[in-house]
Amino acid sequence: MRPRSWATLQRLFILFFAAAVFLAASRAWALSDDPPQKTGVLLVAFGATMPEANAAYENIEKRFRAEFPDLPMRWAYTSKKVRKILAQSGKSFDSPAEALAGMMDENFTHVAVLSLHVIPGEEYHGLVRTARAFEGLPKGVREVVVTNPLLGGPRDLEAAAAALMSMVPMDRGKDEAVVFMGHGTRHPGNVYYPAMQYYLWRHDRLAFVATVEGSPSLNDVSAELEAAGVKKAHLVPLMTVAGDHARNDMAGNEEDSLKSVLESRGIETAAVLRGAGEYDAVVDIWIGHLKSALDRLGVRR
Ligand code: CO
Predict the structure, then answer these.
(1) In the prediction, which pLDDT does 1 show?
(2) 245 alpha carbon to ligand 1 midpoint, in Å?
(3) How far apart are CA 117 and CA 123, in angstroms?
(4) Backbone torsions φ then ψ of 287, nearest 5 degrees
(5) DSSP state letter for 247
(6) Residue 209 CA, distance from chain mean position
(7) Judging by beta carbons within 10 Å of its beta carbon (0-12, 13-18, 19+), is residue 38 exposed, middle or buried?
(8) Which pLDDT tens digit goes with each residue over 31-69?
(9) 82, 85, 77: which is closest to 115 by C-alpha?
(10) CA 264 → CA 90, 219, 268, distances in Å?
(11) Which is the catalytic residue, given 117, 183, 234, 245?
């Protein structure tokens, strides 16, 4: 090699070395400037206006406080309509954006957002977009992890099938069916309801899924029950809370309720008026979701 290129190589080497020292120093500077990790949990539900529905949220909060006593927790409701109605009676609830802004002010650096929704539909995807927008803002939260809703994948569906069956009354006769009534949506996430049907059938051929606004419809499920020759069905909410939909669309006396549709076809009904959030086996699935979110945020438990 010619002496001249040796000199160039030497200069390059010195330059490279200087750059490496500079980068390491500035990284150390940046780290020392970062506030220490402060992790919080944001529990996010659709929200409910009926006082009876709150039993589910109260149970969920109680279970989370027992499981994670040292983690600060906040609540947010995704439904604007629900927040507005609650505000009229003096109860103020944050939207996810308001809650995250508040947590920014309280110097949280890491937030696990726990979705208490049932399926990844409109409310869930809106929540994910909101959470993303808060990540990495100046003087804001460094990292936000949003968990899957209750039904987030094959493993959740399998666990949910077993957990949902724990909601069925013990005195159910062996020829009696169970109908889990979900909300349903026009959002593509509705497919989780027919998917849930598959996993329930692996447990129990007389367990069915119906939805208020999506598919399977009430007609779909009553045709299934008739085909199975069912004489009696237990109606169980496939919803976090037993609010308006459970009490009216599922178990109400209006002629288009699930109860009335089935009874008009000669099928006797009995309704469970407790939301999925009131059952520990279901809440265990959400607790599992939070545990994996905390692992992703590097929180030692
Ligand atoms: Co609704």
Answers:
(1) 54
(2) 7
(3) 8
(4) -65, -40
(5) I
(6) 19
(7) middle
(8) 556 789 999 999 999 999 999 999 999 999 999 999 999
(9) 77
(10) 41, 12, 9
(11) 183
Residue 132 Cα to ligand 1 midpoint, Å, equals: 26
Q: Is 283 within 8 Å of 59 (Cβ atoms)?
A: yes
The pLDDT of residue 89 is above 80:
yes
Phi, psi of 177 (to 5 degrees): -90, 165
0.85 exceeded by pTM = yes
Two structure tokens written together for 122: 């409109």
C-alpha span between 233 and 267 (Å, rounded): 7
Pair 110, 38: CB distance under 8 Å: yes
User: Letter for the amino acid at 8?
Assistant: T
Whole-number Å distance, alpha carbon 217 to ligand 1 midpoint, is 14
C-alpha 79 to ligand 1 mean position (Å)? 10
Distances (CA, A) of 56 to 12, 90, 107, 239: 66, 21, 30, 10
Active site residue 183: yes
How far is residue 193's CA from residue 46's CA, in Å, rounded to a whole number? 18
Q: What is the pLDDT of residue 14?
A: 72
What is the DSSP-derived secondary structure letter of residue 121? Answer: S
Residue 191 CB neighbour total at 10 angstroms: 13
The CA 137 to ligand 1 mean position distance, Å, reads: 33
d(CA 74, CA 64): 11
Q: Which residues lie below 8 Å from residue 286, measured CB to CB, with a gap of 6+?
A: 60, 114, 116, 147, 150
